[in-house]
Amino acid sequence: MSHNIPAMSNATTSDDKYVQDIAVTTPAQKRALSYATTIAMLFDQVITTSMPADRIIGQYFREHKKHGSKDRRVIRESLFGLFRWRGWLNQLDSGQKHSTWFQQLSTCAMLEQHQWSDIISAWNEFAQWPQTRADQIQLEHKASLNDKLSAFATLSGITTSQITQLLPQWFWQLCPVVEAEQYAVVNAMSSRPPIWARAQTLSTAKVIESLRQAGVEAEASRYFSDAISLGHKSINLNEISLYKQGHIEIQDLASQVIGQICQPSSHEKWWDACSGAGGKTLQLYSLMSQQNVPITGNIIASDIRRKPLEELRKRANRAGFENISVVPWKGDELPVDANAFDGVLVDAPCSCTGTWRRNPDMRWLDDASAIIDKPILQLAILRRSAAAVKSGGKLIYATCSLSPSENEQIVQDFLSETTEFELESVTHPFTGQQCDMLTIWPQQADSDGMFVAKMRRK
């Protein structure tokens, strides 16, 4: 890594930087200072632009190809860790901005249990801890969230911190969680999820064998026959031949629940009304193809955004899926025929609170308006899309939100204004419970959060 210190973002002035007047005497300290400044620059950009951290860091690495794999890992994991633990880290205040910044980096490294000890040791020295040195605090390999709270209190001297502070207060107000489950929710949100994949054109056994031969950790899910966990390590998909050939797709396990609820038959006609780049569209087609009979049905995918639809076309071609077509939304008018589909999937735009585990920055970039502003649009989309369902057909409403106002309330409001649809009960795939509407919580199967409801036209 080059040790030229990059300029800070415009959000900080020369007199008010995270890093200033730090004396370095060793190569490790020099590397640690360089990392700290780069991370501070990226952190500032995320906060000031409100752009997703993965987009900010992706652009940075494309523009700075000098960084090796270790550099990328230190920068990326530190940046995301700072957001994961921000509810506690924001309580640190040394009285000097630069030492507070190093205290945050030092504490984050401890809580994340990072392994770059030489860098962390230098950050500990720069942090000027008044109570104790952070490198003297040892957490067990699989330390619990309570253990980490205790370690944070020992290091910082702050004894009033709480588990629930790791999620913003407005989350608890708009996504109610019974007290007995709050620890489990925060624990899941504070841990990195595995990468979930889906076998698409080969058997799950063949996919796993091929991935393991390529050195990729792979394990079959006990819930769905085509779901595969790829572990927690970063993977360069462009180096995986199975992915380049369309044999697998990356799709979170909670997202895969949606297709399993849809249960499309090979002869059915489906419309994915809010397809995005088509993860669920491809899953629907893949489920059709697993029935060992010729596919006589088809899928139409729609979205208001053209770029994701182009990506869907590429992914469908890569997999050799022929019976998928794309029809963009153009205004409020239905882009497909009314009363024409055996199934319509409405994966509505939402607050994405269910994906906070994977995108910890979003919990601090968003505010309550991310939830409050969505229901009017969600109900309008569901109402319009329902017109495409034929008699006896299925209407699936889904979001990656954990808020009842975006989920159950939308379905109830829709059903209250029409007598043409009725709710069908579904089975929770991870607990086996029967329920009218289904919310997947991140702690239930090591996944994102998701909501789905199944209705049928009478």
UniProtKB/TrEMBL annotation:
SUPFAM superfamilies: S-adenosyl-L-methionine-dependent methyltransferases. Keywords: Methyltransferase, RNA-binding, S-adenosyl-L-methionine, Transferase. The active site is at 400 (nucleophile). GO terms for biological process: rRNA base methylation. S-adenosyl-L-methionine binds at residues 303, 347. The keyword Transferase applies. Belongs to the class I-like SAM-binding methyltransferase superfamily. RsmB/NOP family. This is RsmB/NOP family class I SAM-dependent RNA methyltransferase. The lineage of its organism: Bacteria, Pseudomonadati, Pseudomonadota, Gammaproteobacteria, Alteromonadales.
